[in-house]
Amino acid sequence: MDGVLIVNKPAGCTSHDVVEIVRRRFGIRRVGHAGTLDPQAEGVLVLLLGRATRLAEFVSGHHKKYIARLLLGISTQTQDAEGSITADHSTQHVTEEDLREAAGAFRGPILQIPPMFSAVKVGGKRLHRLARAGQTVERQPRKVTVYSLIVEDFQPGEHARATLCCVVSAGCYIRTLCSDIGDKLGVGGCMESLLRTASGTFALEDAVPLSAIERASSDELRRQLLPSTAAVQEFPRIDVDLCDAEKFCHGGFLERSECDEGLVRVHSHTGELLGVGRFDGESASIRPLKVLRDAPNDSHSQTMPDSD
């Protein structure tokens, strides 16, 4: 069974917990997520099932949209409200104008140091495992992009609060963004809550609540599954005949001249998604990058219709 499942993850469980639930409910092992959500975060979690897991790299790079609750004056070990408090400062003097000015410094391309409590690897080891062992290691800043950062509301006080709506590139840590904005104001800060409202074209209103997945029947589960094509819908579609389909599935280059430079999704003459390739204008050919099928009409796999 191949396809894409958009889950509305609740707070209080890990992304891996969601994967395990979906594995059990669908009765398959090949399930992965494309862009993790921290346990306290909720919202859109994109899951790939079966052979669609091979498309993870094309989905995980999508822009993400979030609504975050920023708590100013409180710094924590994990940069969110779940961590141990490391500093406590009054924010009575901080105004909404101050916050908007500070937030403005983080729009566009920025350098961000990954938090110690994260899945980033340094020296082959996950940072969160080192952090839990009481270790702090040097992390190299990473370039991310904040495409949009809007201060939706502001509540002044001893510990001011604000709601931030942001659109960011893959790899951007919103809790680090909250912490850095607090540091910019000189009072520190952390993330109180986080809701992911979209990942690429997948929006919250299209997501299935995890509770609904846990109680759904087999037929209801199948109806919630999107075709694998949904993971690469933004790529131009190329339809090929049986001969070229077999060539592509065996790693062969396809001669083409009508494509634009870049990624394309290749479909068989029956509409089945065969995989993703890259068109090279210089050689006028499509090079296979990810192949989903062993043969044009693989009768051993259960697939969703790959209609647009």
List the helices and strands and how they pair.
Elements: E1 3-9, H1 15-26, E2 31-33, E3 42-49, H2 56-60, E4 64-72, E5 74-76, E6 85-88, H3 96-104, E7 108-112, E8 121-122, E9 125-126, H4 127-132, E10 142-155, E11 161-168, H5 174-184, E12 189-199, E13 202-203, E14 208-209, H6 210-215, H7 218-224, E15 237-239, H8 242-249, E16 254-255, E17 262-267, E18 273-280, E19 285-291
Net shape: elongated
H and E order: EHEEHEEEHEEEHEEHEEEHHEHEEEE
* Fraction of helical residues: 10-25%
Proportion in β-strands: 25-35%
- Radius of gyration, rounded? 22 Å
Corresponding CATH superfamily of the largest domain: Pseudouridine synthase
Broad structural category:
alpha+beta
In the CATH hierarchy, the architecture of the largest domain is 2-Layer Sandwich
Mean pLDDT: 89
- Under CATH at level 1, the class of the largest domain stands as Alpha Beta
User: What is the first-to-last residue Cα distance?
Assistant: 19 Å
CATH topology-level name of the largest domain:
Pseudouridine synthase
Q: Which spans of ≥5 residues are poorly predicted at pLDDT below 50?
A: 298-305
Counted by DSSP, the helix tally is: 8
Please give the largest β-sheet.
10 strands, mixed
Number of strands: 19
How many distinct folded domains? 3
